[in-house]
């Protein structure tokens, strides 16, 4: 790919799969967005929407996997955009890289913020006198980010080990939660409850409310580009990275559906659960009692912490690669690698600092989490869509060992259409009446990112950034390898 090696290849096939599976994180995603789904479509959209959207995301993952096989680098999306563009390579690469950067930072911040929120929910259950505040949420998030940065500072073997543990934590946790929700309650909803529809969004159009409910699954299925970003540290990356992406999505779709069914059928009082401050926690309390609910909540919190750790790892590799091509302020700092651990330590702490900056508004505003999630999802899915779209425009695309054959263009076209449709949904109002608390900040977040990127591009970047850099011929690059 034109770069000297700085990072060691210690990720095996399972490790590569594990990072995307951990970032998708069905427990974290479902528990964070379940309440929104109860009010935007109810069980009908939670279940059937999960199935439909999972299939669409699998199209995106397969199309991305084909590109990952052809361009297995840490730069991933922005690198492949620069290589696939017919012209204006620097501009395509620039915008994709910044969308990916902001989306990654938003993902790390949102996951940490969600974990802090559920930690406070647990503390309030354990000690009723505990006062849940936005200030404490921000402080707990800061502590979480520091510990995740420390874990990422050390060797990549530690990160790989933590991701392996996280896979089994997620699977075992899912089994425990599903088993408890299936066996313990004396009463479950009837089989027909899966068709129950609810529209508490404030909008009178039921179809609109149902479409908003599809976002529950889209919120969950983000971050599977992590396998792509870890390519330079994965053995046989041209095969293992795309397999990691597709397997992570497929396994998450199946296990997530099982968890979603268990939660839906365990609902006792629908209205009370839908209006609760933490709806899935209310479902656990109603079905299992406070004691068991607290134990299961610890599983959820652990899953969120693992998710944030993997998010930061992926975020760091994108920063490392983007800086290596000179696209970030202080690039010479952020793509340096520790000679002892062979990890981009400075990039790790930049990722943690940027994530904390996104979280700080939560000190004053309760809408901060919605804004952070908007930054995460919109930034990432647009970054996913750009290289897939450019691959469709390229007549002489050279696939890697893992490819879709004659179905590549069809799969890519479906992926682009779904990305456009789902991003439009993310931009629309999500509840009515529209107030500062219910306002959808996704368009604002996207507008700010694109405005800053555009001003920066025309001011200075277009003269110094021409897309991915090549350090020379393969033999020259090999001679520069630092490992």
TrEMBL record:
Entry-linked PROSITE patterns: AMINO_ACID_PERMEASE_1 (PS00218)
Domain of life: Bacteria
Major location (coarse): membrane
Key words, A-Z: Membrane, Transmembrane, Transmembrane helix, Transport
GO cellular component, one term: membrane
Annotated transmembrane regions: 21-41, 47-71, 92-119, 139-160, 167-186, 206-224, 245-267, 287-310, 347-364, 370-390, 410-429, 441-459
Topology versus the membrane: Multi-pass membrane protein
Record carries keyword Mitochondrion: no
Biological process (GO), any one: amino acid transport
InterPro entries with a match to the protein in the record: AA/rel_permease1 (IPR002293), Amino_acid_permease_CS (IPR004840)
A molecular function (GO) term: transmembrane transporter activity
Record's subcellular location: Membrane
A Pfam family the protein falls into: AA_permease_2
Name under which the protein is recorded: Amino acid permease
Species name: Streptomyces armeniacus
